[in-house]
Amino acid sequence: MTTAVCPGSFDPITLGHLDIVRRARALFDEVVVGVARNASKSALLSVDERVALARAAVADAGLDGVRVEVVPGLLVDFCREIGAGAVVKGLRGGADFDAELPMALMNRHLAGVETVFVAGDAALLHVASSLVKDIARYGGPVDDLVPPGVGDAVRAALARVQGSSR
């Protein structure tokens, strides 16, 4: 059985993420959506919230053979732990490739884990978690960019943050 990991912070999960997971599932027997902590980013949603939203999105999309887990440390250690031989990353454009290539080479160097790059759906290339949060922060519509329930969770988290900053 071949297993791949689709890693990301998923803060929040978007329809673009689900598109890549769906494509990865067509290539691998099992796909693990790996919810990671990114030290260079300040997350809006807690890890538990991101995992719950990703699990609901995968279930709602009917993606059999896909599960969601937390990546507790280095991605390559997680891949070894679950027996994954590949990482799948979605690309929206050249800037994504430029950012992802050094990580892919390091993962191969550290653990022999290969990275498969999957081109995102052209209809979703503009969808990014950071943009979803920015739009929601200013009251804009995001529900057509994310799976059901995610927009509500983002708005609730923003309200918590705004309430605590007063």
From TrEMBL:
Which reactions does this protein catalyse?
(R)-4'-phosphopantetheine + ATP + H(+) = 3'-dephospho-CoA + diphosphate
Q: Where is the Cytidyltransferase-like domain?
A: 5-133
Q: Which GO terms describe its molecular function?
A: ATP binding; pantetheine-phosphate adenylyltransferase activity
Q: Give a GO biological-process term.
A: coenzyme A biosynthetic process
Q: Where is this site: Transition state stabilizer?
A: 17
Where found, per UniProt?
Answer: Cytoplasm
- Residues holding substrate: 9, 41, 75, 89
What this protein needs as a cofactor is: Mg(2+)
Q: Which NCBIfam families match?
A: coaD_prev_kdtB, cyt_tran_rel
Q: How does it assemble?
A: Homohexamer.
The family assignment reads: Belongs to the bacterial CoaD family.
Q: What does this protein do?
A: Reversibly transfers an adenylyl group from ATP to 4'-phosphopantetheine, yielding dephospho-CoA (dPCoA) and pyrophosphate.
What protein am I looking at? Phosphopantetheine adenylyltransferase
Q: Which gene encodes it?
A: coaD
